DNA sequence: CAGAGAAGCTATTGACATTAGCCAAATGGG
DNA sequence: CCCATTTGGCTAATGTCAATAGCTTCTCTG
């Protein structure tokens, strides 16, 4: 009968911690409740559903990642900012693998809060890339390329996919990847014939797997 | 009691098809059995477990993807081969999203068959990149970079993450990404101070999430 | 044509998420 | 301070899965 003093944030926070320990897919309400000193159905006073809990983790994660990226790039610009942001991104993802995975979940269609933090995080990246004077479609291409590059590397790394040839330093590989991306950006900013000035707009439907 | 004529391959194949339709995480033994005209527990005559079924899907997928990549790069070399391979990779992944997700699952530690097909697929990439005379650690860096680049883009695309600014052509973005990677490779092959000649070797432990 | 092994089936179990319905603890207005 | 309301927690029960046990029926081989 004494109260545990839970609330939606506390639950999401502990869920995030637990997820980072055991993996997002092994986050279970039974053990989460146990960790919070409460019976399993009691969690429903603070969450809607498992999916809702995942969403809460995702929203927190997106916010945190966005802040990390912003902090890393403040005061820098151009290649310097890109490099700093890249390393901050990777560091955060590696130390919070499940939160990172959650941060890549697409917002549900009418979820304005989730949409907002998603856009905000991407906007940090967009702002940094603007240093290359890319506009319109070119900027979108660059943002997609940058996000893809980082996400691919980090998700392989957190999945342990680089244990092939484990003796080769992963830090060095990442460093070269980032340098390579910057080089690519340079070499392509010249040749680019851009047009429109489209930008981050609306959001689509649901997602699925998250591989 | 007429027999359904199932076997391990047939089950894995139908599982792969169903996964591509509904998503790997929504692959369920109940509906899989139904699709195969059999009761759910009967599947266990052909599979070990859900995890085993995922492994079977993964092995098939890795083999298929490896063949697709090999076919795309045969007769080509250098940037041409990389571009062809990249587009084949993306096309296959987009048409088989769940198989693609499965293809990124790490092999379990003693699973020699899975390890073999995994290495084989990566080896196709390694062979193509060899055209740049990258050796040892440099080659490993390049392979990691290439796989990361493709995987990041494709997994975002299949997750629907590019619906931000949906009006910008995704094909074009991919094309530029690939060109950018090639440019990066060029610009870095020059500056590279390499050393060892390490290569694809052994495999590590288990995996987890597959974001 | 017997009989062994493979391939199905029904019945059960156990782990989860989720819902219903009850009761106690905070809380806040008189 | 006191009671009414809201809030948070609990037990019990349900439904969906994966997984196991144990029985029956094909099927194929000697």
Automatic annotation (TrEMBL), chains A, B:
Q: Which InterPro entries has this protein been placed in?
A: Homeodomain-like_sf, HTH_TetR, MT1864/Rv1816-like_C, Tet_transcr_reg_TetR-rel_C_sf
| GO molecular-function term, one example from the UniProt record | DNA binding
SUPFAM superfamilies named in the record: Homeodomain-like (SSF46689), Tetracyclin repressor-like, C-terminal domain (SSF48498)
Keywords of the record, alphabetical order, are: DNA-binding, Transcription, Transcription regulation
Give the superkingdom in one word. Answer: Bacteria
Please indicate if the UniProt record lists Transit peptide as a keyword. no
Where does the record place the HTH tetR-type domain?
A: 5-65
One Pfam family hit: TetR_C_33
The record's listing under PROSITE patterns reads:
HTH_TETR_2
DNA-binding region residue numbers:
28-47
The name this protein goes by in its record: Transcriptional regulator, TetR family
Recall the taxonomic lineage recorded for the source organism: Bacteria, Bacillati, Actinomycetota, Actinomycetes, Micrococcales
């Amino acid at each position: 009968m004494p109260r545990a003093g839970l609330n939606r944030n506390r639950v999401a926070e502990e869920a995030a911690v637990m997820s980072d320990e055991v993996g997002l897919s092994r986050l279970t309400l039974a053990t989460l409740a146990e960790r919070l000193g409460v019976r399993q159905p009691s969690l429903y006073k603070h969450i809607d559903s498992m999916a809702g809990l995942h969403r809460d983790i995702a929203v927190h994660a997106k916010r945190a990642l966005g802040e990390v990226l912003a902090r890393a790039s403040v005061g820098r610009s151009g290649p310097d900012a890109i490099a700093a942001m890249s390393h901050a991104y990777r560091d955060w993802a590696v130390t919070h693998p499940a939160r990172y995975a959650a941060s890549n979940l697409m917002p549900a269609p009418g979820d304005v809060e989730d949409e907002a933090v998603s856009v905000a995080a991407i906007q940090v990246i967009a702002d940094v890339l603007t240093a290359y004077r890319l506009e319109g479609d070119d900027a979108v291409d660059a943002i997609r390329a940058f996000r893809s590059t980082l996400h691919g590397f980090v998700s392989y790394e957190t999945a342990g996919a680089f244990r092939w040839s484990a003796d080769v330093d992963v830090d060095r590989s990442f460093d070269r990847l980032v340098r390579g991306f910057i080089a690519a950006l340079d070499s392509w900013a010249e040749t680019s014939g851009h047009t429109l000035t489209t930008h981050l707009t609306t959001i689509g439907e649901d997602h699925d797997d998250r591989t």
